[in-house]
């Protein structure tokens, strides 16, 4: 499959690009608002994978062009910019494509990190509202720490929760997630359940900060 990581120049984009490049044969395309930045990031990820012995080439384009090339389009951007990013990509998407959102609304104050959903109720719902009606939206990969993904020597051994109303699209993204060694995908319900899943993110950040040796932690359900 062709995977387009919009905003793939950032932390989770790098982690997903490296893991998909390392563990799978899917084509990875990096998107950015700036095509030069996308190209530079794609080159850096390709170099890293080549050094790891993987013969692959990741490419980079402006977000709209990356979306055009992708079948699975990831919104690897801060939560308050997901709707803008969908708007940029919308004309390039078809009903055969799937949008994936890993974003969670998190705010930080003097007491720490807290869940801060948008008025739609969750980022996944916000993306579903912004996306063309024919394009399914799946929330996934929220609870994966970018640092752990980026360290290709690190075993994952963690779960990711899938949210979405389109069962077929959810299965596709579940299979895609499990193409990454050590990642198990679990169905966590429909878009109406997205807030529960997204709210794990500030909890995980707090636990990682408060406990030694739990930096870049993940969760498993047992
Ligand atoms: N970091 C993690 O460990 C992690 C884990 C799971 C999920 N997530 C989620 O993934 C999303 C991205 O997180 P991140 O840590 O990768 O963020 P980030 O590094 O701060 O930003 C990612 C990319 O977003 C793009 N961006 C920034 N401002 C933008 C704007 N105004 N409009 C459109 N694009 C913009 C930038 O790409 P360009 O400048 O190249 O356009 C940037 O490289 C977040 O929603 C977060 O909740 C993060």
Report on the structure:
The chain has helices at 11-23, 35-51, 63-69, 82-89, 123-130, 146-150, 167-178, 194-198, 200-210, and strands at residues 2-6, 27-32, 59-62, 72-75, 98-101, 106-109, 112-115, 137-139, 158-162, 183-187. It has 222 residues and is of the alpha/beta class. It has one domain: 3-Layer(aba) Sandwich (Rossmann fold). It has a 6-stranded parallel beta sheet, with helices on both faces. Strand 9 (158-162), helix 7 and strand 10 (183-187) form a beta-alpha-beta unit. Helix 1 (11-23) crosses helix 2 (35-51) and helix 4 (82-89) runs parallel beside helix 5 (123-130). The longest helix has 17 residues, at 35-51. The chain binds NADP nicotinamide-adenine-dinucleotide phosphate (NAP). Residues 3-105 form the Pyrroline-5-carboxylate reductase catalytic N-terminal domain. GO terms for molecular function: 8-hydroxy-5-deazaflavin:NADPH oxidoreductase activity; coenzyme F420 binding; cupric reductase (NADH) activity; ferric-chelate reductase (NADPH) activity; NADP binding; oxidoreductase activity, acting on NAD(P)H. Its EC number is 1.5.1.40.
Brief write-up:
The chain is of the alpha/beta class. It is built from 9 helices and 10 strands. 39% of the residues lie in helices and 20% in strands.
Write the layout of secondary structure elements.
Layout: E1 2-6, H1 11-23, E2 27-32, H2 35-51, E3 59-62, H3 63-69, E4 72-75, H4 82-89, E5 98-101, E6 106-109, E7 112-115, H5 123-130, E8 137-139, H6 146-150, E9 158-162, H7 167-178, E10 183-187, H8 194-198, H9 200-210
Parallel strand pairs: 1-2, 1-4, 2-3, 4-5, 5-8, 9-10
Antiparallel strand pairs: 6-7
This protein binds NADP nicotinamide-adenine-dinucleotide phosphate.
